[in-house]
Please model this.
Amino acid sequence: MKTKQNKSCVKKFILTPPTLEDNTADADRLIMAMKAELKADSVNIDFELLKKLPGLLRESNYNVKCIIYKDLERLILAGVTDSRKNQIIAGMAIDLGTTRVVLRLLDLESDKVLGESSFDNPQISIGPDILARIHFADKNGGLNVIKGMIIDSLNLQIDALCRESNILPQQIYLLAVAGNTAMTHLFLGLDPRWIIREPYIPVVNRPGIIKTKELGIRVNPGARVLVFPNVGSYFGGDLIAGIIYSGIANKEDTSILVDVGTNAEVVVGNKNWLMACAGAAGPALEGGVTKMGMMAGPGVIDRVAIKPGTCKVEIHTIDEKPPVGICGSGLIDLAAQLFLSGMIDIRGRFVPSVCGDQLKEKDGIRHLVVARSKGKNCDSPEDIELTISQVDLDSLIRSKAAMYTILETITMSVGMSLQELSTFYVAGTFGSFINPVSAISIGMLPDLPINSYKSLGNSSLGGATMALALFDCMEEIDKIRNNITYLELNVNQEFMNRFSAAKFLPHTDPLLFPSVKVFS
Amino acid sequence: MKTKQNKSCVKKFILTPPTLEDNTADADRLIMAMKAELKADSVNIDFELLKKLPGLLRESNYNVKCIIYKDLERLILAGVTDSRKNQIIAGMAIDLGTTRVVLRLLDLESDKVLGESSFDNPQISIGPDILARIHFADKNGGLNVIKGMIIDSLNLQIDALCRESNILPQQIYLLAVAGNTAMTHLFLGLDPRWIIREPYIPVVNRPGIIKTKELGIRVNPGARVLVFPNVGSYFGGDLIAGIIYSGIANKEDTSILVDVGTNAEVVVGNKNWLMACAGAAGPALEGGVTKMGMMAGPGVIDRVAIKPGTCKVEIHTIDEKPPVGICGSGLIDLAAQLFLSGMIDIRGRFVPSVCGDQLKEKDGIRHLVVARSKGKNCDSPEDIELTISQVDLDSLIRSKAAMYTILETITMSVGMSLQELSTFYVAGTFGSFINPVSAISIGMLPDLPINSYKSLGNSSLGGATMALALFDCMEEIDKIRNNITYLELNVNQEFMNRFSAAKFLPHTDPLLFPSVKVFS
Model:
């Protein structure tokens, strides 16, 4: 993420003041300097900024800092400040998640992080998933309501973050926003209805660089927001941001980038080509299906171990609070440990002879007690049993099989095997908690050397941050977007065959997972 | 002014509707079609238009008309309509005069004029000249007040003109505005204070193509206004529009274009080069100095004849009403006839022996009675004498000498003589009333064959109209602006010598005016 100084969005200009011999207009004087320095065809100056320019130039004695984004061959001037005043010039990177929105405030000159905050996407009150929100937006006035929710929250959070960081929102000149296609539409107030209806058409793939005041974002009145483009309805700007952040599009070697979640979004490629696809891996991977599954939070089981030969499930909970549920990474750990200890078989079925009395049957379905707890409500006198059922396991196995099949399909589509990939990037907050050894053990991820797995953390936020550090980042973004070939995942017989083979633990073909050894 | 059909600002597109195999986003689908058809690097779609696009495309079954301007390599989409609805798509050309504002409403598809109107610039209430207005704008809030005056009036007049023409203001998608540099600044709400202070710096020379909603003009919300660029503080967009209208920049032969008024703005050139200058010719030419001088209107003397040998001044008045004053073209006629009839000499002095008892002396200054009238107030029982004084004549001669000297200087600066010019274009409403024979007789304009003089009428409005007929007119405008070399008129000894020589009627060198023959 190192930035060359000359790539900064903030540029200093010392202009020669006008004379009778050189009576170029104020704007033209600045535009000429910008074009000469930054090799661009034209410069766009916001009208309100144009009004202030004569005063700004004269007060600063023609010694100014310009805040600049480049869009195609055009420079966009978002602001001009007096070079001699040492005021922070800030930018804001935004990861516009369906569930959670994360903000990062940056000093655009030093690239220093001034502060970070996050908040639950207020649109959750309409519906936790994007589908419910799109249906809501469809109704009369719904689009404005749901757009207003995110914009209002952003304004509040920007204000708060600025206060904490001792700057004013007016000092924010550039923003970069990465979100999936639907979230981006709702953020922009664009009708998302055609995204979910055949043939699945977004309003726009490349919103470009937009004036914040057109969106109602209260920062500097001239500020612009770079909106990450999408490839289509099911491959959004958050993933383009992830590709930027991972750097796979700059490498000679071929890498893979996977955003693990309800949808598995996958990119395979290198500096010459990129192949992408997205497919439903099933909510089980996020812990959203099992009865005790929940989002990460205090008391949620995030790590599981079973000592070989003991069948005793040892759990770790977040903040080491009494257990209240299990999150996705905990679930993957649990399944891996159950399998390695022989408590479930190669088909993911409980082995009663191994599980012993921890296995119970309710309504004809087997449940394994994972932990006992007083539950969330500590006043409750009764113990709560946290269990995992055969249904939960079956669901997890379908999800992991779908994930592996998607990875295998996209890699094979470019004539490679998974084993040939040099680096395996796991993106997303959830992805960063997955233990690759466990994911390999159940055959969700391929059996690559552990050090080839790299967790990127919040790669959308990372990509958005990078976009604030490079005045011409849009060029790289466009290049990546244009380089992506989108692979439609056809659920044909071949896909189904691969899927069936992947429904075993770790796989019907154990040669694909040489490192996975069941405790014996 | 003939326009090639493919140059129209309104383009039809029949798009292929999306399918699962071709699920390009709505905006990208239209952008791709526009880029392919019109050879441009990028397309700018207004954000509000983007919001409406999905509906528009589907309702029209992907059969749309796009209203497009081109700015540099970028297409600007001002509007999209359903091709199958036969609604007029209109444009508005505006001549933004210091004194008078003229509007012309056009059908952008047929280039047919739908209506015209004009109104006094309401800023006259602040001051008749631009200087007073700039000082007013300097005061706290003054700029907004004076900008609001012109915008409010424009909105009212646009509404009225639309009503008369049976269209709605929402049907206006493109505007083109031509005004001098100061008027353009006041129209845009840009601080004009530095225009009149050394070293005379406009805020911007090339305002470009602006959203009407940014200016508060109430037409279609997506409409754009092309603002003619200026060359500097004293050579404005009205003159660039005049150059476009005259066509001099497309000709092999070298022509001259003169806007005759208080300021003489002159362009000499051809398709390879353009040389421009502006200089004060003095208000006498517009009839603004003489006691009986006034703007053209009913009862104003606009033509004068003196039958050889009679000394009897025969007048013609506008609308043939009783005489109330004299306008600029009448004054030039009068001076020419006085000179040709021997009533004034080569220095412009009254010849008492010829003038006879029509010559009177008031306060030691000679006055010649031109007409007698009941005056404006017809109830007045007394006759009013309309007279021209020696002071008036002296002032007129200084003005005509300045005009001729400017014409001579700019022509000599390119190594030519005035006689070598193929066409002499006279621009401006006032210019269109000047009788070239009279102007030549007093040596204000050079002694060229009468048919080489062409009156352009309102060339600013003509140029603005042309800008609405060509989607890429900005290219020609930029080319012209970049081709212009601006000649600073240095009032040095050589200039003064030429000026002194031109203070005679028609000139100290009669060989320059072979056609001028005093009645004998």
Observations:
- The longest strand of chain B covers residues 63-71.
